[in-house]
Design brief:
heterodimer; A: about 290 residues; alpha/beta; 2 domains; 4-stranded antiparallel sheet; globular; disordered C terminus; B: about 650 residues; mainly alpha; two-stranded antiparallel ribbon; about 70% helix
């Protein structure tokens, strides 16, 4: 498999802190690459660099053979480098329907002048967008929420809305920032299936930041672990969970992080390791 | 001792010592005002447009007490300082505190209302003074003569006290526990409260301090400026103080003093060499350069999301939306409004009809704010500049170039759009209140320099009304109908914008710029589009206004009108088209109907403040409530079950899409 995205020697500083210190990763065409690491490891920073929301001090990013180091986020998105946001805040004053309509901008951008003077082309384009949006809303089972304001929805519903938009954006490489964040534990398995289905339908490559180990292990072909802004390890999910460095810095020695809750064994050792999954959302908040 | 340093190349430029000294003195007054502005900004995150007026009112108190009651100067000054502190506390307790969670734009407009209210108080007090010849009282009679320059007692006090006050305040914020608490509260009110800092009391304290500072400045400036201090404490002075504050990144007090000094000196030296207009041009360039150079990363963008509407309009469900009766509501509303608007002038006098014409023209300007601020979330305090540009361009096109009237209207709109895009380019980097400062500077430079050029309005022009064959628009009534047609065009432009992809893009970029970019929405182009539409509308309205008043000059477009245009949009509900039109009617109508100058101020300011406090969604909120009621009736008749699905399952995750 060839490399779809290559980020080489990426370095970012926030004041005196090195958020990323010469990290290189490669996403191969068609794979799902997981990105894990403790809070402050630099996962989200790396993500922001790849998606164009953070300009790295050093390094080079190429996507599909093109150098995109200085491209704007919207230029990258137009090339199929699509990202999700951890909080899935979307747009407070738009409805679900309007949000999915907005995602049609990639296929069918609005043109200001015809819009302002309501030329016939505006109405035609708007109708085509509405049809596509409604189809997506039905596919994702969002029909009951169609005319609700996004700001009134739970994080989970907003996440599904965002994924509906992702489908409209036709990703070549989909960057997912903690898709399970804010979603109830019992729904994470369904989320995994949904993500696999999205990959199947769009044929995209994925780069996923995720703290939920069962989800990422079921999803990823390969996992990269970061720690304190540096590359830590790389390998198959199986190799990663057994990698001594990863275990030491991130997973801990308890097995409950790796397996679903319900299979929690009696606690051994420090309380941090035996953290039950239900209590995790609070601990999982990334400081960005 | 008239020392003049002269630069001969590349241009002849003289730097007289006298101008430098005078510049330093006025610069210190800017510095002191800037310090007050910074204090308020640090505690409330708003630019206090009423800052100068707080002090002016206190100065009027001194004038009344000394000139009329025969009080000793120092007693009167002490009373005035107490009054100013009290006013600061009052503003904070009654208005600012209640708007703690409101968008900063609303707070900004509230300070505008406060400014007008204080202005009313000042006029009222000044009116009670009979002994006008005595001039403004001064503490002592020492004067310092430097060649042709005579420094008044107040100016001498400025020279001594300002550096002392700035140093004392800077030390206070750096070394005292309370000072650090003030800074903490400004940095992050929620966290400060969590660690036990009484943020509210701190906010009151800061407003009291700012009131006293402002009063001090006014008292020192007043002896040189005469009794009517207020007129000279208008937008010009505010702009210079703001410029100094912005150069100090709205944080550093010593830098504010240095910046104030620099601005004062630049102003006086440029004024020596050129005309007044050029001074504004130079200041505008300085402010823009400062904002552009320093902004990124200098001032953290805490108000990024604070520019949204205060109330969200709940959209109608699709099934309801598609009812023919529901779809007809807005068209029926528009039809009724138009019928009323066409019918009203019959039976009115010519001057009343002219009043309606200006309401219509200002409503168009108000709609330009609806697009820019309501849809796109970008604040502009300079809309009247585009208004004036539209009027001047349309005059030039019709009278000097013989362009047909309708085409001139359109082209002046295009000119407005082009200028607005130029003004908007810095806005890509400047946000929120900083954008308010830069657009205010633009309005000033337009009024003082651009419009005065002979290729714009020059010393004043006569813009005739058009006639097309047998259709003559010379009469007030006929021209009113023409203006009304213009308003209809503007309303449709707004509505089309709101209901199409471009409007959705505007709102998306306003709500969440990063997410919009991730959806491939071109952020830069979208923001500039908002400026272009807004500039088009404002200039279009200005062209209609220009041919409506027929004679206009630079003074026809005072900067304070920009503030009024914003307030009519806020009164209307910020994103509501019919609300804005009604808002224009309220603001312009009341203004022209109330005869006494200062009662105008009272009615508009009190009206604005009451509305902000008790009906933050403006008139639009009432209109939408009415719409929902009508829709509810129609829906029930159509037998549609609207499920209140608030309790629906939280996540409709489906395994198979």
């Amino acid at each position: 498999m060839s490399a779809l995205l290559r980020a080489e020697d990426i370095g970012v500083r926030y004041g005196g802190v090195r958020a990323l210190d010469g990290v290189s990763i490669e996403v191969r065409d068609g794979e799902v690459l997981g990105l894990i690491g403790p809070n402050g490891a630099g996962k989200t920073t790396l993500f922001e660099c790849i998606a164009g929301f953070n300009r790295p001090a050093t390094g080079r990013i190429t996507f599909a053979g093109e150098d995109i180091t200085s491209a704007t986020p919207e230029q990258r998105a137009a090339r199929g480098l699509i990202r999700s946001f951890q909080d899935a805040r979307l747009f407070e004053s738009l409805t679900v329907f309007q949000t999915v309509l907005l995602a049609q901008e990639k296929r069918q951008p609005s043109r200001p002048l015809p819009n302002v003077f309501a030329l016939p082309s505006t109405r035609r384009a708007e109708r085509a967008r509405a049809e596509a949006a409604d189809a997506l809303i039905d596919t994702m089972g969002l029909g009951g929420y169609r005319d609700r304001l996004v700001s009134e929805l739970s994080t989970g519903t907003r996440r599904i809305t965002e994924l509906a938009c992702v489908l409209a954006l036709e990703p070549r490489l989909l960057l997912l920032d903690e898709p399970s964040s804010g979603i109830a534990q019992r729904e994470v398995e369904a989320l995994g299936a949904l993500l696999r289905r999205i990959k199947e339908v769009t044929g995209c490559t994925m780069l996923v930041i995720e703290h939920d180990m069962p989800l990422i292990m079921g999803l990823a072909d390969r996992i990269v672990a970061l720690d304190s802004g540096r590359f830590l390890a790389e390998g198959s999910p199986r190799q990663i969970v057994e990698h001594p460095e990863v275990v030491r810095s991130y997973l801990g020695t308890g097995t409950e992080t790796v397996h679903r809750s319900g299979t929690i064994r009696p606690r051994n050792g420090r309380a941090r390791r035996a953290r039950p999954l239900v209590a995790r959302p609070a601990a999982r908040q990334e400081t960005t | 001792m008239e020392y003049v340093f002269t630069l001969h190349w590349p241009i002849t430029f003289e730097v007289p010592v006298v101008s430098v000294v005078l510049g330093a003195v006025v610069g210190l007054s800017y510095a002191l005002l800037a310090v007050g502005l910074i204090l308020i900004y640090r505690s409330t995150r708003v630019i206090n447009l009423a800052h100068g007026e707080m002090g002016a009112l206190a100065a009027a108190v001194v004038a009344v007490l000394v000139n009329e009651r025969g009080w000793a100067y120092w007693t009167a000054a002490l009373v005035a300082l107490v009054v100013a502190g009290f006013l600061g506390a009052l503003v904070e307790l009654v208005i600012i505190r209640r708007l703690f969670r409101a968008p900063r734009l609303i707070v900004l407009v509230a300070t505008m209302g406060v400014a007008q209210l204080f202005l009313f108080g000042t006029y009222f007090l000044n009116d009670t003074i009979d002994n006008r010849l005595a001039g403004f009282p001064s503490p002592f009679d020492t004067r310092l003569t430097l060649g042709s320059l005579v420094l008044q007692p107040g100016e001498l006090t400025l020279l001594v006290t300002v550096p002392l006050i700035a140093a004392a305040l800077a030390a206070f914020f750096r070394f005292t526990g309370f000072g650090v608490a003030v800074r903490a509260a400004a940095e992050n009110a929620d966290s400060a409260r969590l660690v036990g800092i009484p943020t509210r009391r701190i906010s009151t304290f800061v407003w009291v301090t700012a009131g006293v500072l402002s009063a001090g400045t006014a008292l020192m400036l007043a002896p040189g400026r005469g009794l009517t201090v207020t007129e000279s404490l208008g937008p010009d002075l505010l702009m210079r103080a703001l410029a100094a504050a912005v150069l100090a990144r709205l944080t550093s007090l010593p830098r504010a003093v240095a910046a104030g000094l620099a601005i004062g000196v630049i102003e006086k030296v440029v004024a020596w060499n050129y005309a007044v207009g050029e001074v504004e041009l130079v200041l505008f360039v300085v402010v823009m350069a400062a904002l552009l150079v320093q902004h990124r990363g200098a001032v953290r963008d805490t108000e990024a999301s604070a520019w949204q509407l205060s109330t969200l309009v709940r959209p109608l469900p699709r099934a309801v939306q598609q009812l023919p009766a529901v779809r007809a509501i807005s068209w029926v509303g528009l039809g009724v409004a138009l019928a009323v608007a066409v019918a009203v002038p019959f039976g009115l006098s010519n001057s009343q009809i002219f009043l309606l014409t200006s309401v219509v023209a200002f409503a168009i300007a108000g709609l330009s704010v609806t697009v820019l601020t309501g849809y796109s979330g970008q604040i502009s305090l300079g809309q009247v500049a585009f208004f004036g540009i539209g009027a001047a361009v349309s005059y030039q096109l019709t009278v000097e170039l013989y362009v047909p009237f309708w085409m001139a209207l359109l082209l002046s709109g295009v000119a407005g759009a082009a200028v607005a895009v130029l003004v908007g380019i810095p806005a890509l980097r400047i946000r929120g209140l900083f954008l308010a400062v830069s657009t205010l500077a633009f309005a000033l430079v337009t009024q003082k320099w651009l419009l005065g050029q002979t290729w714009m309005a020059g010393p004043g022009v006569i813009a005739p009304r058009p006639y097309w064959g047998r259709l003559d628009f010379a009469s007030q009534h006929a021209y009113y109908n023409l203006a009304l047609a213009g308003l209809l065009v503007a309303v449709l432009v707004c509505r089309n914008t709101l209901r199409s992809g471009v409007g959705r893009n505007l709102m998306a970029v306003r709500d969440n710029e990063a997410q919009a970019a991730a959806f491939t929405v071109p952020v830069v182009r979208t923001k500039l589009t908002a400026f272009a539409i807004s500039g088009f509308l404002a200039a279009f309205g200005g062209a209609i206004y220009g041919h409506g008043v027929e004679t206009f000059q630079v003074a026809s477009f005072p900067v304070s009108d920009s503030l009024r245009v914003v307030s009519m949009t806020i009164i209307g509900g910020l994103a509501s088209i019919p609300g804005t039109v009604i808002g224009a009617f309220v603001v312009v109508g009341i203004d022209r109907l109330v005869e006494v100058q200062y009662l105008k101020l009272l009615s508009t300011s009190v009206g604005l403040l009451v509305l902000l406090l008790y009906l933050p969604g403006g008139i639009g909120q009432l209109l939408y409530a009415g719409r929902d009621r009508i829709v509810a009736v129609l829906t029930r008749r159509a037998g549609i079950e609207v499920s209140a699905d608030a309790d629906a399952p939280a996540v409709p995750v489906r395994a198979e899409p």
